[in-house]
Specification:
Bound molecules: zinc ion
Distance between the termini: 21 Å
Order of helices and strands: EHEEEHEHEEE
Number of strands: 8
Radius of gyration: 15 Å
Shape: globular
Structural class: alpha+beta
Length: about 130
């Protein structure tokens, strides 16, 4: 894994949280994107080398809605950038990690993404991501 690419934060009200984090970081989000397949709207802030991804649910079946029904708002996942997501998936599987999706999905911010089940990672939802080359 190369580095922490971003940290995902689950929020109830995206507009309010965008304002809050804009005040905190003293910058505006650079991108807002709906990921239809995941039922989320995301908003991204860039802080130096890293990013913060705010996530809000678009409907009650969204993983974020489910998360917020069990947890308070807060850190939802940590995403690590990898060079070759397919190789990394094979490696993690051989190490015994449980993957939520074994086939990389198109995520927000022009990335292929794969999530590891928190059951196998000490309760931390881990995302691995690879930039889709243009
Ligand atoms: Zn993410």
């Amino acid at each position: 894994m190369k580095k922490i690419e971003h940290i995902g934060i689950a929020v109830k009200n995206l507009e309010q949280s965008e304002l809050l984090f804009s005040r905190l970081f003293n910058i505006l989000p650079y991108k807002k994107e709906k990921v239809e397949s995941e039922g989320v709207i995301t908003s991204f802030f860039e802080i130096g080398e890293n990013k913060i991804e705010l996530l809000s649910a678009t409907d009650e079946n969204s993983p974020i809605a489910k998360f917020l029904s069990k947890n308070k708002e807060g850190i939802h996942h940590i995403a690590f950038e990898v060079k070759d997501i397919h190789k990394e998936i094979e490696r993690l599987k051989s190490e015994g990690f449980e993957l939520i999706n074994e086939i990389p999905k198109k995520g927000a911010d022009n990335k292929l993404v794969c999530f590891l089940h928190p059951r196998s990672t000490n309760g931390v939802l881990v995302e691995i991501c690879q930039e889709i080359s243009k």
